[in-house]
Amino acid sequence: MIHHLCFLETLPSTPPSELDALMIEIRILLLKLPDIHNLRVGRNLAPDNSFSLFLSFDIDSPEKLEFVQRNAIYYQFERQILDVHAKRVVRYNFDMDPGKDPGSRSDPHPLQQ
Q1: What string of DSSP letters covers 6-61?
Q2: CA 6 to CA 23: how far, in whole Å?
Q3: How far apart, in Å, are the Cα atoms of 14 and each of 8, 19, 28, 81, 111?
Q4: Which pTM value belongs to this model?
Q5: How far is residue 99's CA from residue 102's CA, in Å, rounded to a whole number?
Q6: Contact at 8 Å (CB) between 9 and 50?
């Protein structure tokens, strides 16, 4: 299982009052993708922090993440949200399968007792 985490620094031209609408738009678009699980979208409570919004979701594998990122709906999300409102986007992908070699895509070895 992969946890995808994304921080968005919005453009100075994006007013703080528009962040709620952006959060809703992100949810509407990304929830159309059936491979995305546990979608979370939120705004930063610290006004002095450069990242205004975050989004995160779980996805079954790196291959499914690549597939989703090539999907027309994800492309629409990038063009309508990121290209229009984001000055900077920072993405992280975390592997949540314990005991698995981060570079390996095979099943983890059973635990030894």
Answers
A1: EEEEE-TTS-GGGHHHHHHHHHHHHTT-TT-EEEEEEE-S-TTSS--EEEEEEES-
A2: 13
A3: 12, 8, 19, 11, 50
A4: 0.81
A5: 9
A6: yes
Q: Each residue of 73-106: b (16+ CB within 10 Å) or e?
A: ebeebeeebeeebbeebeeeeeeeeeeeeeeeee
User: 32: buried, middle or exposed (CB in 10 Å: 19+, 13-18, 0-12)?
Assistant: middle
Which amino acid type is present at position 94?
F
| Torsion sign over Cα 59, 3, 79, 26 | positive
Q: What is the pLDDT of residues 56-94, one digit of tens each?
A: 999 999 999 999 999 999 999 999 999 999 999 999 999
**What distance in Å separates the CA atoms of residue 88 and residue 48, rounded to the nearest whole number?**
16
pLDDT tens digits along 2-50: 999 999 999 988 888 889 999 999 999 999 999 999 999 999 998 788 9
Q: Are 62 and 105 in contact (CB under 8 A)?
A: yes
